[in-house]
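The protein record passed on below.

***
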Amino acid sequence: MWGGHISEVNEGARAADATASARSEASTVHRVRRVLAIRPFRRLWGVTYLCSVADWLALLALTGLVTKYTDSYMAQNFAFAGVVLTNLLPGLIFAPLGGLLADRFDRRKVMIVADLVRFGLLLSIAIVGSPIWLFIANFLVGSAAMMWIPSKDAAVPNLLRRPDQVETANQLGMVMTYGIAVVTGAGLYSILTGIQTTLHLPPDLLGEFGIANAVVIINSLLYLGSALVIATRIPELSLRNVHPVPDAGRQQRRAEEESGTSGGVVAMIRDGARFVRTTPLVRGLLIGMVGAFAAGGAVIGSAKPYASSLGGGDSSFGLLFVAVFVGAAVGLAGAPKLARRLPHDRLFGVGIVLAGLALIVVALAPHLAVALVAVAIVGACAGAAFLTGVTIIGSQIEDAIRGRINAIYQSLMKIIVFGATATVPLLIGLVRPRVVTVWGNSLVIDGTRPVLLGGGLLAALVGVIAYRQMDSRRTEPILADLRNAIRRRPRRVNGLLIALEGTTAADTATQAARLAEWLGHGTRRVVLATDPALNDERLAKLVAGASLSGARARALAAAAVRADIVERDVQPALDAGAIVVMERFVDSPLAHLSAVAGLDASELEGLADWATGRLRPDLTVLLDAEPAASDPQSSSTEHHWRVQQLLTEMAAADPGRYVVVDAEGTEEEVGDRVRTAVRATLAGRVSGLAPTTEPEPVEAS
């Protein structure tokens, strides 16, 4: 359990180094560039652009074409809704089938076939020229899309260099699908349909449906271009299991292999359902999204009458529409930064709970200004939760089942949003509007208020359930994580950092080793890190090689060495769930430098914060001993008293994190006091500590 110096026992160094490197990337632009530098992903991103533009263009083009087929005012009004419904309906029916195809067959071939099918169907619409066939073909186009999307989403993680890049890749995909592609599709439609008017071409130049058919044909060619690019330029889409996922995914694969049921479609459906039922992470993810999508459907269905109840009419509706999308954009942009301080499983649940609470504020808002702020918060929290959910699927679900989970995720979104949007107007109609006066302002209370209130309560409740299902850190309070996120401190997954501080390096080294050995009798992995600023020969080489003699220069060199060991060894061990015991982590070096060189303590503390990424011990054990005049580490007893005084002041300023132990006596006596203090402080807060009584040694036979 305990294996000496941390550099000798660091497990999974390659993955840990990658995680630490990713965490240090503070710039969103830098992260995006790193992902776009990966050629297969960059090409897939271009394919996503082609298909997304084609999707949005098809919505507009087919709506425009179907209105050409009839002179009926009622039928023309139904045109848009009919196109949307026939394109949405396949998601309710065929999404699980798309997931099965993504998990069982070559994803690249599935995507090629789906694109060719969409190309042929759209081309046939222009050739056949029938409104009935238009709706049938549009339904089949939507079905092909349900085959394409799960394969694409499941393949993305295999194109990346590291699993932690999944979040940035998902960000880029959403920006492309719901941002750049929307603008391009709408702009292209406007240009194509405006050519005839702009150039003053004769109305019958291209026939009765000429321009409309031409737009549909161009639309189909975009899908053909996507198929050609996938077939010739992205062979990597066929890769499988590039970044194996531990635990849940591997268990699912072993279960399928042992049962011999991985081949059949029915068996794959059954195994997927069993995986969802038996995996808390996925179960919580889907439960949470049910609440989030239901709340989203409530907002969509009640947006227009709610805007009217605020007394602003169409202008209020427009402002609310803009606010929710601006908030969603902020949430999508900010989620990766929050994820560096809050684990994804916690961030997902917290995001849904906050979205629900903000929706309650929307329901109770007495004024448009309050509603706009609350709606923006709903959008931000929902956007962060949605991105986090997609990231969890891409980075924590095994490749063998990722397609099915993606398909379930997509189908849930369509089913619940569609159902909630259709049901909400009926619920609103059950409540008769009333006018009340709030703070001198007239306020219309209609059915939108209870619907939004119910949606907010549902989202908050489901978010709590999802959080409890998914949370992997039951022993560590959520408030501590939220406090670290607010203070912009880095997150820690499961680890515990215990520091031993004191005036004498020999005492801290001895007691740190004893404490680590005792903690090693528990169920958690324990590693021991020595003080790099005093004992690591790297510092001596750095100082000697650079001929550093000034106190400030030595402090900077010590900070550089400390930053290296924290980033390379300490933080990865904490993220892996280990208990790290480190002597003289920050406080003792700060006190020594301040006492010896007279440097400003606050400046040194800022340097230490920067070097360690604001990492602070969960518990600091301060050895309180009377300094000996013969101590070789100091020039005088007065210096040691000064160091001890500074350490005591640090402990008094933060009593919740420090425990002071009398260090007078033998090593065994001091060690017993340290163990007693650590056990008393951490009992009930941290699992896996050493038992009260150490096990008896077993004699070798």
Observations:
- DSSP finds 27 helices and eight strands in the chain.
